[in-house]
Design goal:
About 20% of the residues lie in helices and about 35% in strands. It is of the alpha+beta class. It has 2 domains: about 15-85 and about 255-315, 2,3-Dihydroxybiphenyl 1,2-Dioxygenase, domain 1; about 100-245, Roll (2,3-Dihydroxybiphenyl 1,2-Dioxygenase, domain 1), CATH 3.10.180. The strands form 2 sheets. It has an 8-stranded mixed β-sheet with strand order 6-7-8-5-9-12-11-10, with helices on both faces. A hairpin with a 5-residue loop joins strand 14 and strand 15. Helix 4 runs antiparallel to helix 6 (about 270-280). The radius of gyration is 18 Å and the shape is globular. The two termini are about 25 Å apart.
């Protein structure tokens, strides 16, 4: 098949993986409505996936990979867990509960996308809101995955296509003072955005869009692949959010298949062996050794847990 191209998808975010309780429902949302293309459909089996990711998964061990315009940035994988009943990772997604939270997609016309998805019965946290130079709203995708739809300003490089694919993931962390240095030192990432939300109209609009509990205080950081990138650019970023006031109990340890939802973030690095050693040296022993390319990941890779406990797949690439 011909992959739709988007040269502005770049950065450290290789992708995200969802444990899907209904592949047809997941495809109806991410492929049919958000414009992603299925570029791989493999069934290596549960045992092979366990070797690759270092965690147990249910049979049949089938994984679909979707792309929004790049063969190596912003990929979305769907792990079939339909054969084993289990609850969602987040029954009520909340921005103050640590663990993997949300996946973000760029859209050209947010009003039209919101109206179309709402007409199909998808639930939204709020109507589209203007906040921090973008227009944004959050939908609940199948398996109760919190999904941001973002319209960037005119002239932004992610404008010009109806959908731009997966551009960012959000991880809620327990301690930014622990998490941020770990990401910087292990993955050689750089901060493009770092601020604590203030009580102003911009924050109130964003809080409405995310249904942030009243009284919560959030510290937000965006991580990119190089210095000199300012602000929230999308296109392959990783967002860390710390609820400094009002944090709930973490779901990171239970964010594992067969529970449904977003559970694994994939990161691209230029030296996977160095990063493997750096994670271990900083107290996060990887779940796997550096493994060769396989049916799931077409490059050397390993899996490690972040300080909060979120699963990260680290793969060789060029951020």
């Amino acid at each position: 098949m011909t992959l739709p191209t988007n040269p502005h998808l770049r950065g450290p975010l290789a992708g995200a993986t969802i444990a899907s309780g209904d592949l047809d429902a997941s495809l109806a949302f991410f492929r049919d409505e958000l414009g992603m293309a299925v570029i791989a459909d493999v069934t290596p089996g549960a045992a092979a996936i366990e070797r690759s990711w270092g965690i147990a998964v249910p049979a049949p061990g089938r994984v679909l990979t979707l792309s929004g315009g790049s063969p190596e940035v912003g990929l979305l994988r769907l792990l079939d867990v339909s054969g084993e009943p289990a609850p969602p990772i987040r029954e009520r997604p909340s921005i103050v509960v640590p663990g993997p939270l949300a996946i973000d997609f760029g859209v050209e016309d947010l009003a039209s996308a919101h109206a179309r998805l709402a007409s199909l019965g998808y639930r939204f946290f709020s109507p589209p809101r203007d906040a921090h130079a973008v227009r944004i709203c959050f939908a609940l995708a199948p398996d109760r995955v919190m999904t941001a739809l973002i319209q960037f300003p005119e002239g932004h490089p992610l404008r010009g296509r109806a959908f731009t694919g997966l551009i960012n993931v959000a991880q809620i962390v327990e301690s930014m003072s622990i998490e941020l240095p770990w990401y910087r030192e292990c993955f050689a990432m750089h901060t493009s955005l770092d601020f604590v939300q203030e009580d102003n109209e911009e924050t109130r609009r964003l809080s409405d869009a995310t249904q942030t509990p009243e009284g919560a205080e959030l510290h937000l950081v965006n991580l990119v692949e190089r210095e000199g990138v300012d602000g929230f650019q999308g296109g392959g970023t990783i967002e860390l959010i710390e609820p400094r006031i009002g944090a709930g109990p973490s779901v990171a340890a239970s964010a594992r298949p067969p529970r449904r939802g977003f559970f694994l973030t994939s990161i691209r690095v230029d030296d996977v062996d160095r990063v493997h050693a750096a994670c271990a040296a900083r107290g996060r022993e990887p779940l796997t050794a550096v493994l060769p390319a396989d049916e799931l990941t077409d490059a050397p890779h390993f899996v490690v847990c972040s300080p909060t406990g979120a699963l990260l797949e680290v793969r060789q690439g060029t951020p």
